[in-house]
């Protein structure tokens, strides 16, 4: 699983226009950095000060445990994300909570 900021998506759009990138190609948008759902849950728990228990349903082990985006096209366009996961989570938490 990856989290990408809206700001990075806007910057990607600008990068594509500047590099004359044409449709109909699809571009995976992401950081290319992998994180498990477990790691994400515990980061959010720590950031928010949540004191409860995080429970995972072990009877359903077939779910997506991890996922990373192929960012080859992004890299070829010269695009680099600017926001890391922790900064993005913090920004959203502070704005909406």
Under the CATH scheme, the architecture is Alpha-Beta Complex
Can you tell me the residue ranges where pLDDT is under 50 for at least 5 consecutive residues?
none
CATH topology: UDP-galactose 4-epimerase, domain 1
In total, how many domains does the architecture comprise?
1
From the structure above, extract its key features.
UDP-galactose 4-epimerase, domain 1, single chain, mainly alpha
Short description:
This protein is mainly α.
In words, what does this structure look like?
The chain has one domain: UDP-galactose 4-epimerase, domain 1. The protein is built from four helices and no strands. The protein has helices at residues 6-18, 37-48, 72-76, 85-96. The radius of gyration is 16 Å and the shape is flat.
Blueprint of the fold:
Layout (H helix, E strand, L loop, with lengths): L5 H13 L18 H12 L23 H5 L8 H12 L1
Helix pairs in contact: 2-4
